[in-house]
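quick one, 428 residues, struct below
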Amino acid sequence: MAKRIFRREDEGRTELLGQAELFVQKGKGSDTYYNAWLHDPEIEYCPRCGSDAVKTQDLFSKTYMDLVSDGEKKKVIQLEYEFYKYRCLNKDCKHIFSKPVCFASRRDNVTFRLEDEIAQQVLSGASYAQIANQLSGSISRQAVGQIFNRWVRKKEACRKTAMLPSRLAILSGKTDKDQYTIFLNVDHGIRVYDIVYGVSSADIAAVLLKDGVPNVQVVLSDCNPIIVDAIRGYLPSALHIIPVEYWFSLVTADFAEFAHEKLKWSSVKGKDTLIMMPEGDLGYRVSDLQRLLDSRPGIKTAYDDFNRLRNIIANRDEMWVFRELEEWLNSADPEFQEAMSATKFQLQTYKQQIASNVEHRELVPERLYALTSRLENLISSMRTFSDEVLKARILYTVEADLEHWSGVLLEDVLAVFDQQVHSNGGNE
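---
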C-alpha cells in the first residue's frame, strides 16, 4: 500500500471538533470550515471477501454540516472529510470500498451529532424556525425539518415488532389544531405502542396490519365512530370494550358548552371553570358557586344532573350498570338532554361495548382514562406541526428497545413532558 502523506494536525480545532476518529488539518479551512482526516485510515483486508490484497483506488472528499461547541456557544461548521477508497485485488471480488466511520452516514450531508441536536431540540418543544435561529441561520428552517424527519424515519426503521399485543387500546385525542390516534399496549401496564397524526381508517389499518393478521383478543376504544368502525372491520373477533369514562367525556363536553351559553353574561369570576369543578374540590369557592347558581337558576337542574352522573361513574364501591346510564339520561333536564342528542345516540349505538366495561372490568386498566386525558392535555398545549413531530415526542423521548418493540411506558412519557414544562418555567 502506498505511503501516506504526512499532514499536520491543528490541535485547537481538532479539540473543538471533538470527533474521536478525526483530526483537523492545520493550515487549511477556517473557523467555520474544517478539513478533516481519519487518525487511522489504513485498511488491512477487504470487508467482502477477507483478502489482504488491497490497493488504494483514489482520494475522495465529502462535506458535512457539523456542530461544535466553543465555550457555551454552539455553531454549525462545514466539515470536509477527506478519505481514500480501496480496491480489492482478488479477481473474484474486485470490491471498491472505503473505511467505515462512526461520525456520520455516507449517504447524508449532516453528522449524527448535528442530527441528534436538532432532534433533541424538537423533542423539547422548539419549532424548526427557532432551531434555525439558534444555529445562527446557518441552516434554513426547511433544512431543519428535513434533517429531523430523516432522524424520525431512521427510528421508525429500527422499531421492530413480532406481533400486536393481545390487549390493545385505540383512542383519539386532540392536538393544538387537529386530532391524533394513539395505540396502547395494555398487556402489562399501559405502553404507547404507536401514534399517528389524524384519525382515519386507513392509518388505523396500517398499524393493525403492519405485522400480518392481528392477534388482538381485547380492544379498548373511545366513542370515535371512525375508530369503532375500524375495529369492527379489522378486529371483528376481538372483545370490544368502551370504558364508560370515554363516553362520560362527551357528556362533560356537552355540559361545558351548555353551561357556557347559560352563564356567558354572568359576572362571577372564572365561571366556566367553577361550574365544571367536582363539588368536593370547590373548597372556599362554594359561595362563588352558589352565587353563580342563584344568578342563573336555569342551569341548576342540569348542574345537579351532571354531578349525579359523575358520582355514579366515580363510585368504585358500587359499580354502575348500563341501565343506570339510560335511566339517568332519560331523567335529565329536557333542555340538557336536547344538547346531548349526539351523545345520547352514541350511548345507544355502543350499548354492548359500554356495557362490557362492567362485565369485564378486570380487563380495563384503572388509570387508563386519567393517564390518556393527561397526555391529551399536554399534546393539545403544544405546537404539533407534523406526524413526525408527534411520533418523535411520544415514542422516542424515552429510551426503549426498538429492536423488540412493545411500546414505551405512558407514565415515563408523561414524566418527560412534566420535566420539560418545569424546565420551561411552566410554559410549553
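The first helix runs from residue 11 to 17.
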